[in-house]
Amino acid sequence: GAVLVDPEIGKAGDIDTAIVNMKLSSGAIAVINNCRRASYGYDQRLEAFGSLGQVEVQNDTDSTAVISNADGVTKEKPKYFFLQRYMAAYTAEIESFVRAVENDTDVEVGVIDGLEPVLIGLAATRSVKEGRPVKISELRAEYGL
């Protein structure tokens, strides 16, 4: 990780740009590129490659139109703020939770679904601070998980 966008973030003892390399239990590798700011909007894309194919999820935009002409290829910028992008998802999560309470059923997204990304973030933070790879199993043992 590094401070490449906002020096104030560095003064606060944090980073604003990071790459997280992960080796998954299946043997697959995953890479997360992260930056606190993109001048063109809230950039969050996903690509997955495998021996049988590839899947890609593009940024959420107000329009799916792509204009191609002699001047180049143009499309809308991604939505700028995460609330613009995720408001419908947050609403669906709340509705799902309310349904689970009303019907006395399990929630669709459980504690483990929330815990895993927290552990990844903790491992990435420790890796930056200690300058070494950090295994999730190390954190699980440390926190008794």
From TrEMBL:
InterPro entries found in the cross-reference section: Gfo/Idh/MocA-like_OxRdtase_C (IPR004104)
UniProt cross-references to SUPFAM superfamilies, sorted A to Z: Glyceraldehyde-3-phosphate dehydrogenase-like, C-terminal domain
Source taxonomy: Bacteria, Bacillati, Bacillota, Clostridia, Eubacteriales
Name under which the protein is recorded: Inositol 2-dehydrogenase
Keyword Oxidoreductase: yes
UniProt organism field: Candidatus Stercoripulliclostridium merdigallinarum
One Gene Ontology MF term: oxidoreductase activity
Oxidoreductase is among the record's keywords: yes
Pfam families: GFO_IDH_MocA_C (PF02894)
Domain Gfo/Idh/MocA-like oxidoreductase C-terminal: 10-136
One BP annotation, GO: NADPH regeneration
Family from the record: Belongs to the Gfo/Idh/MocA family.
PANTHER family tied to this protein: BINDING ROSSMANN FOLD OXIDOREDUCTASE, PUTATIVE (AFU_ORTHOLOGUE AFUA_2G10240)-RELATED (PTHR42840:SF3), NAD(P)-BINDING ROSSMANN-FOLD SUPERFAMILY PROTEIN-RELATED (PTHR42840)
Gene Ontology annotations for the cellular component aspect, listed alphabetically: cytoplasm
Keywords assigned by UniProt, alphabetized: Oxidoreductase
